[in-house]
Amino acid sequence: MIEVNKQGEVWVFAEQHASALEDVPVELLSKGRELADELGVKLGAVLIGDGVSGLCEMLGQYGADKVYLTENPHLEHYQTNTYTKVICQLIEEHKPQIVLYGATACGRDLAPRVASAAKAGLTADCTDLQIGHHEVKKTNTTYEKLLLQIRPAFGGNIIATIINYDRWPQMATVREGVMPMPEPNVANKAEVVKGDISISIDDMAIEILKEHRQKRKVNLKAARVIVAGGAGVGSKDNFKLIWDLAHCLGASPGATRAASDLGFIDGDHQIGQTGTTVRPSLYIAAGISGAIQHMAGMSDSKKIIAINNDPDAPIFGIAHYKIVGDLNVVIPMMINAIKEKV
User: Fold this and answer.
1) CATH number of the domain at 10-203, please?
2) Which of 102, 113, 48, 54 shows the shortest CA–CA distance to 75?
3) Residue 296: its pLDDT value, please?
């Protein structure tokens, strides 16, 4: 049995922009809380920026035991070099056993730099995280309480479980939306640990004059009902059927990557492994064959209705209600039935 820093904490990188906390670190605190409790260690949040101390209370309410706060005017805007320097020094000083990042543009840039500097492993775009053990039969060695980093591999055709038993901290980026958003508990308070890390202008590769962030056109994660279309819809003009049904139901329109790539709908509506992960009360899939990459992002929906003219379409394997037929016929019938009930 090999014990490697088993008392190290579980950390979540608390990504923020303009002093506003992103959703993904809040989701990760939910999973991080589970992992920390199973390991019997503290859960920490790493908060970096300028004038962001007001977020410490929120991070505590979402489950963090500690908030590692580093503030500096040079940290107002995200830059790879400065943020990497801060996190690497914090890791060196406090030696966490797990560090988690959101698989956002920021997280995907930062995590590999930290992993390289720390000479640690990193698994990208995880869809699940668990604690388990690994046995190396050649040496008859069992490693207990490892982070099992689970993600689709080989184009989504298999689900791989990746471990890192000897180069810690264990690090992973996690896709947005795959972990449930926790409810805040105002009674929870986090200990704030202020980092004394020197950041100067010499650490900055560029000067950011202004930062502009474009808001998403649709919040699919919050949608209770989603009507999604795939390549089988046929054309951008025909995709109007998806919009019409969505409007009747007060739903959000969604799409597969194929439909988005074909220009049927904007990429903000994309659902799946490379899009948004959703868990609506009702998911209507029209003209969607059911590639594993798409199903990975919607299979946890409470009720799934699938419309496809192929009776052997993989989407029927997870659908609660299956309609074999032409969506150009079925959807207008559904719209008429809904309007008659209203």
Assistant:
1) 3.40.50.620
2) 48
3) 84
Does domain 220-341 correspond to CATH entry 3.30.70.100? no
| Average pLDDT score over the chain | 90
Local confidence band at 1 (pLDDT 50, 70, 90 cut-offs): very low
Cβ 252 vs Cβ 220: under 8 Å: yes
Counting Cα atoms < 13 Å in the Cβ hemisphere of 208 gives 13
In sequence order, what are the residues at sequence separation of 6 or more whose Cβ sits closer than 8 angstroms to the Cβ of residue 93? Answer: none
Q: Is 188 helix (H, G, I), strand (E, B) or coil?
A: coil
List, as one string, the DSSP characters of 237-293: TTTHHHHHHHHHHTPEEEE-HHHHHTTSS-GGGBBSTTSB----SEEEEES----HH
- Is the pLDDT at 44 greater than 80? The verdict is yes
Distance CA 108, CA 85 (A): 16
The model carries a pTM of 0.80
Cα separation, 29 vs 42, in Å, equals 12
**Residues forming beta bridges with residue 173, ordered by sequence position:** 101
DSSP 81: H
Percentage with pLDDT > 70 across the chain:
97
Domain boundaries of the chain, sorted by first residue: 10-203, 220-341
Residue 4 has pLDDT above 60, yes or no: no
The separation between the first and the last C-alpha atoms of the chain, rounded to the nearest angstrom, is 65
2 has pLDDT over 50 = no
Our CA angle for 276, 268, 115, nearest 5°, is 55
**Residues 70-77, mean pLDDT to the nearest whole number:** 90
* Cα separation values, 271 from 56, 130, 299, Å: 32, 24, 11
Residue 231 sits at the vertex; the CA angle it makes with 228 and 237, to the nearest 5 degrees, is 80
Residue in the block written with tokens 């982070």 = 147
Residue 181 DSSP class: P
**And the tokens for 333?**
């019938």
Contact 62, 39 (CB under 8 A): no
Per DSSP, the three-state class of 8 is coil
Domains 10-203 and 220-341 share a fold: yes
